[in-house]
Amino acid sequence: MSSMAKPSFADDGSLADGGIDLNMEQGMAEHLKDVILLTAIVQVLSCFSLYVWYFWLLAPGRALYLLWVNILGPWLAADSSPTTQEPNEKKQRRQERRQMKRF
Predict the structure, then answer these.
(1) What's the predicted TM-score (pTM) here?
(2) What is the pLDDT of residues 32-48, one digit of tens each?
(3) DSSP for the chain?
(4) pLDDT tens track for 51-65
(5) What is the largest CA-CA distance in the chain?
């Protein structure tokens, strides 16, 4: 984990990647922290029962949920036909006059 937190620099000395801060509440760090906590909880509770290892199925379940909510769901529910509204004649003439004034 410490290697992920180290910043990396480009050849000219500029910052290329600032590293991951596990205290961030957005992005990949939030999900990484969730996986680390799930791993710790499963390891501690597995001392009492071997069936606790099934809690590891929560990680891919959450990944599939996030994939559906953020990517697949909106993509499948998107309107397949592009809606093109034709501007009425007055608006079109006004836009043409503005274009002519610019040149």
Answers:
(1) 0.53
(2) 888 889 999 999 999 99
(3) -HHHHS-EE-TTS-EEE----TT-SSTHHHHHHHHHHHHHHHHHHTTT-GGGGGGGGHHHHHHHHHHIIIIIHHHHHS-SS---PPPPHHHHHHHHHHHHHH-
(4) 999 989 988 998 899
(5) 80
